[in-house]
Amino acid sequence: MPGMLRPPTPREAWLRLAACAGAAALLQMDGTIVTVALPSVGDELGADSHELSYVLTAYFVAYGLALFPGGVLVDRIGSRTVALAGLGVFAAGAVVGALAGSFEVLVLSRVVQGVGAGLVSPASLAGAVSGFPPERRGAALGIWGASSGVANLIGPVVGGLLTVAIDWRACWWFLVPASAAAAVALRVLVPREVHADESPDPAGLRQRVVAAGALVAALTFAVMIGAFYLGQQYLQLAAGYSALGAAAALTLIALLVVVGAPVSGRLTDRRGEGQTTALGFLLVAAALGALAVPGVPLEGPGALPLLVPFGLGLGLLFVPASRAALNAVPQAKHGRVSSLLSVSRLLGAGAGAVLAGIALSGGVTDEHMRLALGVGAGLCLFVGLPAAAELSNGSAAARLDDRRPGSRGGAPSAASRSRR
Q1: C-alpha span between 131 and 261 (Å, rounded)
Q2: Which pTM value belongs to this model?
Q3: Which residues make up the CATH 1.20.1250.20 domain(s) of the chain?
């Protein structure tokens, strides 16, 4: 009834979220830890800078290809079972990489790790929200997203310390006990779920909400990765910054994203997905649009204030798309929706990097930078805001649908069972 206090979320749900967030954070740390070690890998295994990129490419390609099968498996046999299997494959790949005697074997190990990550990713997202009612999933997703952001911050530090203190192989060995710890937490804290509901999703509105959520996820990562690429190229090649100095700007943005994600979760639960998404895109568009104006500094203290709305805006965009898409379908289909969101983010990241590269193909100049930043602002306004409106329409309709007798909406399926 309106006005009644909602019961508190069970402690078990928060513990389940912590275990799943830890598994997701491990996948994020993997990329940053390994990236720091790549120069040492090239020295020992005789790979040049171009070849070293295969270590990352092999991982992400295998990761992307495994996401959809992983999502289907999550819906059929449960998030815990799939996540544990994925962590086992991931750890096995890390062992092969740590023992690799040639560069080819190392690349093969990254393929194995990517397959494992593709299983863990949809399982961790579906499992993270499985203990929360639909109206409180924003807070859970905010914590889940912030944990990945923190992992991106500490990953380079861990990778650098291990590489300097021991050698590059220590970075791969580190992933083995980390995977084991994540697996133990999942095994203890996440119940085994068996979903029997295979009924088709209602046509129309719910499908549009899922599509809008996927579009928001793709656009968020396209703008983020594209802007990061542009910034790094400009600061190092045009402004004369060192790699460390240029990375400091990304660290600030990452910190703001970590701050913004939990805020986004609470705001989404209170105000809805559409308003939070619109606010995020407006902040990002304002920052990019201001930087695109001739005369506005693109580096140094003058550009620093504009990084604040950019980072916070990105942080606001991480939660609402996932919440809307997951709430639009029964829990028995969360695995497939989670995989769709992950694939959208990967495709968006790839598109952002390609478009940014094209924008600078004529040279890293102020003119080219401002044009590219202006295009990014336009995408946020003319693509992002209409997608946000679709999320608003979906959440309003879902609230009406939830009031109907027998409606399932985004709530867990009655045919789903959880047992230890």
Answers
A1: 19
A2: 0.76
A3: 13-193, 204-402
